[in-house]
Design brief:
alpha+beta; DNA Primase, Chain A; DNA primase DNAg catalytic core, N-terminal domain; Dna Topoisomerase Vi A Subunit, Chain: A, domain 2; 5 domains; six-stranded mixed sheet; five-stranded antiparallel sheet; 17 strands; globular
């Protein structure tokens, strides 16, 4: 058994998928939920706990736990198995060749980032960090809070970290790949971050993988400098402080999305542990998908300026596309979350989050700001800007309630607005992708379900499969033939031998509930075989009768008599 198979055998796929997708039990081993890989209103995403695979009968997505982690978390195969092995405490095997080089480089970079984080922390606490300490104290960051977030300071001289890393004898290629240092023309290295307040960015396991650095001295640009992409850091996939926020997000069924690093620190100081932020970029679809793994609701609380409002509007669509329910929190006085907490206190901030309005109400208010709804033209423009969002609202009762509210806000006739909503919702269309599923004869369908479900049944039936040639040539023939080839199969081995239609049929059969005792299953299989055998005999009789008629029509009396005798022998066997 290779390591991937060993890993899959030790992991419960329902536990991994269930962290990211709310699942409902539908049988002894079957779970169902909304597919995380396409938009749908009714659950077509199934997970089989015993066979350790998932299948969406809407979009066709399928695979094992490793593939799920790869697709959902947007990581490579190596990253997926490394993450799973670390979580479950299963040692990775020694690596060779190119894999070994890649693995070694990742570990070296992680080591370098931890060294850098400790150095920056020590520098912030030392004489060189006096200005940075004064700055964060002015922002209300206590020593304990700075310690929680591992805040640090990079000296302006710019060579301290490079010297420390060089003493560790890391290869030059690894140093350059880390993004922590840069190479001069003469081949020497200098620090990439100089004279900055340092915010360590960690992965979900809490390991430092990047930094955000805020300039501390006038004239230093840009204001915020972020680590480049590396083998351990893809900024479009990572959210600041997610490793701290994920447990609180699950507990409170929400994530709070703020704009900057200090906003996360300020929210944490107010008791909002579920706050996260993009890492120096606009929110991405990958980050929105990550958030959906931990909570069903996202409260957006970006800065109140024009840029923040535009970012809020873009983020709403990404979060909705990821399947989140979205609310928007607004703050008075043009203050960002960190400033609001300092000015008004933790309780006031928590209250603002608690009364955050549904996203559509916020969009309606924004439409009133953008268009002059005192005029007919302005009302039409506002309505047209909102109608595309109606496609995100599937519930008719919710649409009707919104129509009432918006009719008052926009000064539009309620009946007209409701009709426009109905048309917009109808234009959404059903995004479900229908995959044709073959209809099998009942006896064959049940027999195939039993063969897939139970090893003892599979061994008995497959030892006799040659007596039922019609199965190998029928609509499920590719599944039967694949079963003869793989023997004691794993699910992914079997699926790889099938066409998409065959794989879909196989998955639909696998989710059948056969929870009887093994002896009962064997008896059911035997009854199915008898039914199929009877059908074979009847088919053979019908074929002989057809041949007899054709021989008589040709005048071949002797051939007709021989076929008639064969028919009689077949009947006597029955």
């Amino acid at each position: 058994m290779d390591f991937a198979q060993q890993l899959k055998a030790a992991i419960d796929i329902v536990a991994i998928v269930g962290e990211r997708v709310p699942l409902k039990r539908r049988g002894p081993y079957s779970y169902v939920g909304l597919c995380p890989f396409h938009q749908e209103k009714s659950g077509s995403f199934h997970v089989h706990q015993e066979k350790q695979f998932y299948k969406c009968f809407g979009c066709g997505a399928s695979g094992d736990v490793i593939k799920f982690v790869m697709e959902y978390d947007h990581v490579t195969f190596l990253e997926a198995i490394t993450s799973l092995s670390e979580r479950y405490g299963i040692p990775m095997p020694k690596r060779t060749g190119q894999d070994d080089a890649e693995y070694a480089l990742r570990n070296q970079i992680l080591e370098m980032y931890e060294i850098a984080a400790r150095l920056y922390e020590d520098t912030l606490r030392g004489p060189a960090g006096a200005d940075a300490r004064a700055y964060i104290a002015k922002r209300g960051v206590t020593e304990a809070l700075a310690g929680e977030f591992r805040l640090g300071f990079s000296e302006r001289g710019g060579g301290v970290l490079a010297k420390v890393l060089r003493k560790q004898d890391y290869p030059d290629a690894a140093l350059e790949s880390s993004g922590l240092v840069k190479r001069r023309e003469d081949g020497s290295f200098y620090d990439a971050f100089r004279g900055r307040l340092m915010f360590p960015i960690a992965n979900e396991s809490g390991k430092v993988i990047a930094f955000g650095g805020r300039a501390m001295f006038e004239g230093d640009e840009p204001k915020y400098l972020n680590s480049p992409g590396t083998p351990v850091y893809v900024k479009s996939n990572v959210l600041y402080s997610l490793h701290r926020a994920k447990d609180a997000a699950r507990k409170h069924d929400r994530v709070v999305l703020v704009e900057g690093y200090m906003d996360v620190v300020g929210a944490w100081s107010a008791g909002i542990a579920e706050a996260v932020a993009p890492c120096g970029t606009a929110l991405t679809q990958q980050q929105a998908s990550v958030l959906r793994r931990f909570a069903p609701v996202a409260v957006v609380n970006f800065d109140p300026d024009a840029a923040g409002a535009n970012a809020t509007e873009r983020s709403i669509q990404l979060l909705l596309d990821a399947g989140l329910r979205v609310r928007v929190a607004t703050l008075d006085g043009g203050l960002d979350p960190d400033e609001f907490v300092k000015a008004n206190g933790a309780a006031a901030y928590r209250e603002r989050l608690a009364v955050a309005q549904p996203y559509f109400h916020w969009l309606a208010g924004r439409a009133r700001q953008k268009f002059d709804t005192r005029t007919s033209e302005g009302k039409v423009q506002a309505l047209e800007s909102l109608l595309p969002r109606v496609r995100q609202i599937r519930d008719r009762v919710e649409r009707a309630a919104l129509a009432n509210e918006l009719a008052a806000v926009l000064g539009v006739d309620h009946g007209l607005l409701l009709e426009q909503f109905r048309r917009a919702a109808a234009g959404r269309g059903d995004q479900r992708i229908e995959t044709p599923v073959t209809q099998l004869p009942p006896a064959e369908k049940v027999l195939l379900e039993l063969v897939i479900a139970n090893t003892a049944v599979r061994n008995r039936v497959m030892s006799q499969i040659g007596e039922y040639p019609a199965l190998l040539d029928g609509d499920a023939g590719e599944i039967w033939r694949a079963l003869t080839e793989v023997g004691d199969f794993t699910w992914d081995q079997l699926e790889k031998k099938l066409t998409p239609v065959g794989a879909t049929l196989l998955a639909s059969l696998a989710f059948a509930d056969h929870s009887d005792t093994e002896q009962d299953l064997l008896e059911q299989a035997e009854a199915c075989l008898q039914t199929l055998q009877l059908g074979n005999r009847r088919s053979a009789e019908a074929d002989l009768k057809r041949q007899i008629r054709e021989a008589e029509q040709r005048g071949s009396i002797m051939e007709a008599l021989e076929l008639a005798e064969e028919l009689n022998r077949l009947k006597r066997k029955n």
